[in-house]
Amino acid sequence: MEPGGHGLLPKLAFAALTCSSALALYTSRGGDDHRSAAFVAGAYVAIALLFYYLRRFERGEGDRGRTKAAVWLLTTLLTAMFAARVAPLMAPPVALAVWIMAAGTVGAGFWALFLQP
């Protein structure tokens, strides 16, 4: 694959994400679970934006600092969304561990993108 080109794998991954999200939204229609539908829609939009900014970052397009910030903010958002969804299902000590791991992931991402020389 040439530099900056689009491979088949990212396209397949995005197609699988789209199909999975559409199926989840379809199965939640008509029900009272609007929070789940909002979660799926929000996660889909965040992941789609993450694909976009990661591609920009790999190509070196735009301001690299702003692109890094966008990538970090989107991954932080996704981490918080998934932790908030999983933690209430767990026993309190495990829920605390979920939030500690989420905070560690966010901190490590910040260190890797902004503080590492």
Q: Would you mind describing this structure in some detail?
A:
By secondary structure, this protein is mostly helical. It has one domain (8-115). The chain is 80% helix and 0% strand. The chain is built from 4 helices and no strands. It has helices spanning 8-28, 34-59, 64-86, 92-115. α1 (8-28) packs antiparallel against α2 (34-59) and α2 (34-59) runs antiparallel to α3. The longest helix is centred in the middle third of the chain and has 26 residues, at 34-59. The chain is flat. The model has no long low-confidence stretch (mean pLDDT 89).
Give me the secondary-structure topology.
Elements: H1 8-28, H2 34-59, H3 64-86, H4 92-115
Key attributes of the depicted protein:
117 residues; mainly alpha
Question: What does this entry show, briefly?
Answer:
InterPro entries: DUF6490. With 117 residues, the chain is mainly α.
**How many extended strands?**
0
Radius of gyration over all CA atoms, rounded: 17 Å
Mean pLDDT across all residues, rounded? 89
Helix content: over 70%
Order of helices and strands: HHHH
Transmembrane segments: 34-54, 69-88, 94-115
InterPro entries: DUF6490
Keywords: Membrane, Transmembrane, Transmembrane helix
Pfam family, one: DUF6490
